[in-house]
């Protein structure tokens, strides 16, 4: 009796955890609510490189888990030295610490692959974590430089960056 209960529990948890490997980040299409996290707003400021000026890249974005049972959003942000390899490649908490994110690949401030997780309560009794990834491309952004050479980029109004959910554990 104990062994059959153990097997049933194992297979139930395995179903939530599959697949365990991340898909290659790509342009993700989200058909149903809950298929993706969505990045709805992005703001990126890059320095002008002049001596004495702020030499930091500043990034913030709004991340939304649109699952009908959850529908939670948060602001995520990071800063790092321009021209360095200091971009966020380790998991960073968002303002809502149930969300975390990192870049898995970073080519420029407008070309990157992102990984994100969201911890939540499932069915009012079980803790769960979902994993998602997606890609931003230069075409997703509008960028303007000011008179000093500093650049500001934001997500185009017609764009959303979708992060496909590829795994969940409970």
TrEMBL record:
It comes from the Eukaryota. Keywords: Signal. Residues 1-17 form the signal peptide. The keyword Signal applies. This is AA1-like domain-containing protein. It comes from Botryosphaeria dothidea. The lineage of its organism: Eukaryota, Fungi, Dikarya, Ascomycota, Pezizomycotina.
